[in-house]
Fold each of these.
Amino acid sequence: MLSIEFWVNTLSSAGYYSLLALAIVFVYSTNRVLLFCVGEIGALAAFVTYSAHQALHAVELPLAASVSVLIALALVALIGAVLFWVIEQLGTNGSHFVGTIIAIAFALTLQGVMNTVWQGEIYRFEIAPVFLDLGESRVALLSLVVGVSGLALAAAAILLLNRSRIGYEMQALADNRVLSILRGIPVRRRIIAVGAFSGILAGIGGILGAAVTAISLESSTLGVNAIIAAIIGGLTSPAGAIAGAVLLAIVENLTTVYLDSRHVTLMPVLLLGVFLIFRPYGISGKAETVQRV
Amino acid sequence: MKHSFTFLGALFASGVLLASPALAATDAPYKIGYISDITGPVQGTFKYTYEGFKLFVDQLNQEGGINGRKIEVLLKDVQSDTQKSVNAVHELKSAGVLGIAGLAVSSTHAATYAAAANAGIPVVAGFPPNLPIILEPAEKYAFGVGEVFNQTNTITGAIARSIKKDAKRIACVSFEAPGSIYSCRTTLESAKKAGFEAAEIFIISQNQRDYRAVASNIAKFKPDIITDCLGQSHVIGLLPALGAVGYKGIYLNMETAIGDQVKRDGVKNAPDIDLYSYGRFISGKNIAKEGPQARKLQEAASKAGIKEIVAANTGGWVLGQVIAQGLEKCQGDCASSEDFRNALEKVNVDTGGLTGVNVQFTETNHFGPTAVRLYHYNRGTTNFDPVGDWHGIAPVRRADK
């Protein structure tokens, strides 16, 4: 019998995985670039939040925590926008493959920057521990907040995509770039906006993940799991990305409880292998078709 | 005639200088290589040891050096990469170093020692972990002043017992590295000898990020004391997770260059955990009273703007003392690495309060006896206060393990 505590921990893991996976899906849906730097963007947001909070707290600025988060998110939005501006600058010479390589180069650059600025140090957010005693289980309120807010933000992002004009234009762009240009959609601006928006999603995911674990360079490996969650979800389906994130979180936590925590890093890859064999188009099950006209 | 004498005098003087390379050589600094991870993934562990080493060498050079010669440190930042470590040995050999100090993560040590042995250069590994090849019977060119878990953890059970007399259950948390797992096995053996009724190892992934499920598993075992052999990222993640699952016992951390601040940050969100730490080298904000070398380290650190001395700083300073005494004892002009290696086997350093016992090497043991001191974390002052006297650890034979 799995405890409430287990499910709350799983919920929080699913929360931050969902946001990171969603960032990947939004980008991939728009220009077929695999956002390999998603984990690094998340880790950078956590580091910047921590350092900004330390600085603002020292000068006794009111709402230092909120301002720190906003500073970090503004920075990662800018990074996302710059990344896709660079990719767009390649124009027709660039392909989604080149874009993915540029994303990998960005990941390495961000790792180098974090290594230089924070010099391999590891930090924790100073959040007062509050526990809820639920029967025999003891639940950390922080885990609950991370899980609920992560999934709620992911759902809100999907709603924004499905209900707003910009969201429609992004989907149109994903379907047919040439037709979108002919219909007057500002393609370049929309793609850069997707980069910024995905940067914000990755940043929130990184900050939430760091809140329940730690702020370190190693936390950028969360991005690998987020990519696996996105692929499991179908890579072009936002709802599938959330489902993939939830499934991954459940498998990881079950592995720790029933098998061995050392296998946790192996399980996402195994899960991906199983999906690629039995359900190669992921949970959403949509195969992409290419028509020659 | 006067000019002829002047010319002959100049010729004689220049002839003496040219014919006496030894005179020129004795003024030259001793070259010592230093291999470490200064900008790489584990810089948070290793840069502080180098910091302490450099503080010692700079101070020594300011005081005139050894035998009238200064020490020149040739740093190779290998970023914990094995191939870079081996390349660094070859480069340092070409640069004419007498010996190599430091080293990066323990997974690079075997290859580095092997390359140095082939080059005939002695290596003195610093803090934290060292390979057991420096224990008796030691490999010819391998020395160390860090921690060898085969030896250190033989006393962990007794230390745990000294903290809580009626403790029955002990858990040891390690990560999936052979040295770390071996450390916990030795800990559990020592715990059983110390009268613990139940002992269990919990092994986590090297890249573990989320510790909550692991902490639940550990809590289910209901340990009175949890001990560890972990890195910085593990400790800062595990402590709050243990707090979150309601663990209210003792956490006994083995100091392996984790640093006191990481432990403070980790335990902040675990108000019910009683934190202890033990290690070979002293640390703290004010260590001057511990002895003459502690006072010198404190002064050098203050000048360098270091507010709190971590165990790795102390370990680096002691490594410098060992290298310095090796050079001091080195025969003649210490012209070769072999001379330096022979001298290292005669080292017996009084660390002046920085460790519990002298650092002493012999022909067969390149690590020597050690001692550890227990510290208790005071939540009020946020200091780690020493508990009792040093716990001496007798040398362990490699062949016995």
Amino acid sequence: MALMTSLPTKPTPHVQGRSRVGRISLDRLRERGAISLFLLPITAVLVLLFLIPLAQSVYYSFTDYDGYSANADFIGLRNYKSAFTDSSMVGSLTFTTVYAIGTTLVITVLAIPLAVILNRRFAGRGFVKSVFFFPAVPSVALLGLVWVFILNPLGSGVVNSVLHAIAGSGPVPWLSQDRLAQLSVLGVGVWAGTGWHATIYLAYLQSIPAEYYEAATIDGASPMQMFRSITLPLLTPAMTVSTLLLLTAGLKVFDLPFTLTKGGPGFATHTITQSIIENGIAQGRVGQASALAVLFLIVVGLVVLAQLFIARRLEGRYS
Amino acid sequence: MKRSWNITFGRRRLQAIGLGIAVAVAATSLAACGGGTSSGDGSGTVSFFSWDNQQTMQPLLDEFQKENPTIKVDFSWAPPVSQYISTLQTRLRSNTAADVFIITAENKVQIMNGKLAKDLSKEPFIQNIAQSAKDTYTKDGAIYGAATSSWGGGILYNKDLLAKVGFTQAPRTWDEFLSLCHKLKDAGITPFLEAADGIPVTVAALVGLQNQQLGGTMDAQIWAGKESFSNTWTQPLTMWEQLFSQGIETRSAAGLTGDQVTQEFEKGTVAMTATGSWALGSISKAAPNLNLGFMAVPGQSGTYWAGAVAPGYAINAKTEHPAAAEKFVTFLQSKTAVEMAQKASGAITTTADYTPTIDPALSDMVSAVRAGEFYLPQSSWLTNSDALDTEATALLQQLAQGKASPQQVASGLDTKLKSLNG
């Protein structure tokens, strides 16, 4: 009532506007300053731990730097040339590509149905989820050491003992024959990763509204039709995330093949990361290792860009 | 009014927190490792970086502290091999390496070429170490490391299993060895098993015989271009390959680890394996009932041992505490320290003033090892030993699988050496 009878004094619009604008811009400035300060630590981390080492790697890749001496002579593209003629590189490139693509495809094919099953209600679901997620908990290197014992190619190996007891078969050279060693590494990689990636799909599955399935059921859709027309399209964002993680992890894989086979037999399970580490650290050829790392970065960048391009197109088609 | 204060306080707090984090990150980034101190008489702190762990080194450190109460040892370690090598590499490059560290077969070339360790040739204790130890860490007359022990490698055998086929004395030739293996096989005993996860001891010893025939200059000649791996390695590799082609050893050896082979041997199911003297202690402990013997690897012209000089102690060329570092390395070479280390590890020490008491199973090996009569390619190669080791291991695994011939393996090493020398 008081407000109705006595109107507040109206300040001059021009003065009020200028003061407000000034205050707003000052507030924004402060806000931006605070945001910048918050970004500073991560920027420092990015510069210190990524950009500077990357620049150093590019520089060293054109030198004969051995990691010890302060002297590093410029040798042009020699490191890049030898990267393509190194005997281990061909094997490394082949196996790394096979591993990255193989684990991505197999884990995706297994993780989606697994997530669909785990999304249903059944007795002991929590326990089953834990069992499938468990391989993601210990370090992959530790898993590798355990699987060395399990896949021991002698008759005393766990798998070979079981096979002998069941089928009376002789020892299978799991880690001693090229193709079997590659399949063994791939198999352990799939075993270790499927549960974790099923969890990603499970999270997305739980966000799909139940009404979609109810409507499809009323329309007479079969479970397979519902999976193909509702579940799979709505899982494409999850597939983007999962396959990106799988591809990048697969391309830079080191710990699992190294603990399982040390890259052997021969160079059958040798990986690019192993070549980089062996060259740079053990063999004191930092220049050579840097050239490999630069080439590897480019390859990984291209693969990831291609994967994102395809995934985005799929998402666009289904959304 | 209250709301306005809250907003202002919130922003200030936000800015303060951000600033605090930024300062903390900057401070952390700029933090540097502190070094020890010492005076000219050697008192103060000396830092020591090893690949033996604290538990192994502590008795020696305690003894040193007892004898030198004014010097404190700042001990650190990293497990062998790659982790130790990479840590030392980083520390040497950033001038934060310890005053004393160990020089090994894997990093000696870089350390000696870069003169990153002090020349110890004038130190009094150098007179006490074996000639083979001096040779291993010498370049252009300067000695960069002082090793107190060596290890030998040969064929470790189960006396009880060999007795079942009438074994009385160690074979003197390769053919006798193959004959013994066949007898064991015919008796239903696994005759021989050796992992190919590195250059096998058997191959090293057989190549060592070739080196002996060339007056110990085989690798020098290969590096000088006067000899080749094809000429010198093909024959030993042909002999080694007979183990697989004659069914004496399973081709699965290509994918076995040393630990897996040791476990099989400890079970008493394998008559012979090839390993180093360092393995004897753990095998005897794990399988105390095994009656063990060690024999040299027989070749065509006699027998030979694989083996190498152990890592040596080196003083950082840029140490700020040279007197304390010298005192510490001198102590490590002393009779007291060598005896303590030997009793703890069972190593074959090679210093002149101490004769070790060794496991009887090693009795045939000890005199040869103390005389430096052994060979290990990785230690003998003049440059790029680790790169060649990786290549040789991969090629030997292919040979064991039957996917490569001895000639292909040997010429593969020539190709690798050529590419490394660019």
